[in-house]
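Colleagues,

Please find the record for the two-part complex below.
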Amino acid sequence: MLLLQQLLNGVMLGSVYVTVAVAFTLTIGVLNFLNFTIPTLFMLSGMGAWALTKWGLPLVHTPPFPWPMALLFAIVVTICASLVVERFTFRYMKTKYGDATEHAIPLVSSLGFLLIIENLMRIGYGTEAQRIAAFDWDNTITVGGLFLRVPQLVSLLLALLLVAGLNWVLKHSRIGRGLRAIAENPDAANILGVDSRRLVPVIFTLTGVLCGLAGILFAINYGEVSPTMGEDIGSKAIAGMVIGGLGSIWGAVLGGLIIGIAEMLTIHFFGADTVQVAVWGLLLIALFVRPQGLLGHHSIGKGKL
Amino acid sequence: MSGYWTGILTILSINVIMAYAIFLPVATGQLNLGGAGFQALGAYTAAFLSAVAGQSAWATIPAAMAVGGVVSMAIAFPLLRTRGVYLVLATFAFAEVVAGAILNTSELGGAMGLSVPEYLDYPVPIIAAILVTLFVFYLMATRFGLTMRACHDDDVVTDLLGVSIRGVRVAAFAIGGALAGLAGALYAHTFSFVEIQSFNASLSIYVLLYVLLGGTQSALGPLFGAAFFTLLPEVLRAVLPQVKGALAGLFGIQGALSPPDESWRFVILGVLTVLMMMYRSEGLITRTLIERLKPGRHPASATVEEASA
């Protein structure tokens, strides 16, 4: 029973990883770009929601926001930040005439943005972890002896819904067809009339939505935010994405859940300190044994970036 | 020399060695985002040998270099099968595994850290940094350095010309690992204390960024990158209060302003990184720049000489 409870907790924890991992896999799958700002965007959303409920907007000194508005506003801020990142990183991707490291230009400048956003947050709001007052619908239900926290359940369902929606958009809509064409071959897509300059911001908007949502869901679930909250989640989401397969959305879902469950089971059997070894060891093994991941296509990330 | 300057020179020396450790793989076209892991290996080897086995620094430092070199060579073979994003992710994952493994080894102090009995004063890291710099300059001037550059610029053509790309890359990776081990050992002996929290993912990111900012085309680049990044906070410490004061005067803000924050250094590093990648993605110091600054040498004749050498 205890083990079943731990499995359930793992799935719940995994749902946060899933949302962030999908954001990662989307930019890699379509744009061939490992966007290292994603963990900070996640942090920006969580910290932003906290700052808005506590102090309102910075610089103009508005009164504190009521929380539904703060959550919405935090997502909007995250989307805007994601679009700024697109303007200054991805626009400078050069892959045609480049040497071995030139393709990594957006990756490196996204590391630059990671430093900028995280440290501006530290300067603005301090480095300590901040508590968010619990919301009144934060309660636990019991199903057959298993404890379920409602916000966690909501976030899992929301994550799955979002991913299913995203998958549908990619498969069936005009935008999705354009995006998949770019992923396949950017030049051919452009010749056939896909305007990649208009479609690339769509990816970054989606990244903003996913990270924003993950950030506020995390804040609600755990009641605590800090400028470093993205590091742990971000690196585990990367691990999940790689295990599931780069560029595959359902792979990211599977990988995120596997990481969540692996984390909970390691805590259950070996204690909290060994989580890092288990998660990253799993990733290293996956990279050596099956680099394309569980559901990934073998051509993505091979030879190109 | 005052303690302030010796402290800065020590950190500068360690950063320079670390920069070269990352520079060597990058110069063959592989981004290594696991610098902290290799440095931690060296630091903990030295700390363990010094604290538990009671060895002197003459034994611990070579041992740390050997561990760094051997481990990076051992993982280089499977690691370098991966490319691009996968290589970045794999090196990143390796650093996390090292950190996790050390955290769970009680002989190494776990989360408590290890104190190192033998203290080395500032001349040792400075001399080590100078030697490493000379070594890397020499290495880049040899035929091996030329093949490293060739692997970076175009690996397919280099392969066709009969160079074992894998061999060159593994060698560069292993030498880099040994240098990172040296940097770690020096860190352990000059700070007298190691804890795994100092070797986190951020360290790997900073080192990679200042190597790329300095430029990876020549051995001068990492030197400039490391020096700039180490001296920037000191300059900021002097300048930032005045800037803040001037701003306060401009906006008519009364009362005390919060003291300058360490975080500004990273914001500036981030902004510089983004700007550099936009306008000069090959880094500050390039081969063209060096040729242009050399008096009396025409760039065209220089390339001819290089080709015939």
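The two ends of chain B are 44 Å apart (CA to CA).

Comments are welcome before we finalize the supplementary table.
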